[in-house]
Structures are given as C-alpha cells and as structure tokens.
Amino acid sequence: MKTYKDQIVEGNIHTINNFEVARNNKLHCPVKNDMLIRFTPFTTVFQEQENAATIPMNNFQIHPLDRLQERNNKSDYAIDVVGLLIGVEEKTWVNVGLQRTPIRRIQIEDQCNTKVVVTLWGAKADLIDTHITQD
Prior knowledge:
There is one protein chain. 3% of the residues lie in helices and 38% in strands. The protein is mainly beta. It has 2 domains: 2-54, no CATH class; 65-133, CATH 2.40.50.140. Strands 3, 4, 5 and 6 form a 4-stranded antiparallel sheet that branches. A two-stranded antiparallel ribbon has the order 1-2.
C-alpha cells in the first residue's frame, strides 16, 4: 500500500486501473458502501490534470441526535452529527486493561433541542478544554 499512498494526492483526480472489486466487510467503514476496491501488484495510478473543483470534497451522513440510539453498537460505517457544544466536564481517567486512559464528557444540542452526552477517549479528551464553555 505504501507504493500507492505516495502516488495518490488528496484533492486531485486520479485514474486507477487493474484493481479488484469485493464486497465490503462493513466493519469500521468511514462511509456506507456495499463494495470496496483492493489494489493488487498490477494496479496503476495516474494523476489527471483536470480541475477537481467541480467534484464535492466531502460527503457527510448527518444523523439527528434523537436517532443516535439506532446506531448503538453498530460499527459498519461512521456517521456525523451536528450540534452546539453546551457543556464540558473535567477530564477524568479510567482503567482500560492495564493502562489509565483519559476521558472527557461533553454535551451537545441540535436544532431540535435534543441533547446528548458524548465521551471523548484518549487523546481526543484533550482536544476540548473546560474553559471553552465558561462565560
């Protein structure tokens, strides 16, 4: 994969030849797709000179907060949520196996006034600090 990683530049258009198409195993996918492609030793990648501005850069599957329970314990694909950060708790620590792991709980609210508590684990617990919501 390293060979191909060096050839593919995000934001550019590429032509990819000689790859395999397979059914998606549907575990921990960034997007919801039934199929995936696999590079082989014969796969070739060419960067095109066309302008990529007409192709959308991002594709989101935004779920309303009141429907998050439907995705509980499902790891087939990732989802996105949009909400206002309305609360941040102090960072705490939990034991995961033999290691202490930081966690931080935050509360978000969507446009329908639905509120949920989200737990940030590991390094993500340090991405938000409690002083953000103090005012």
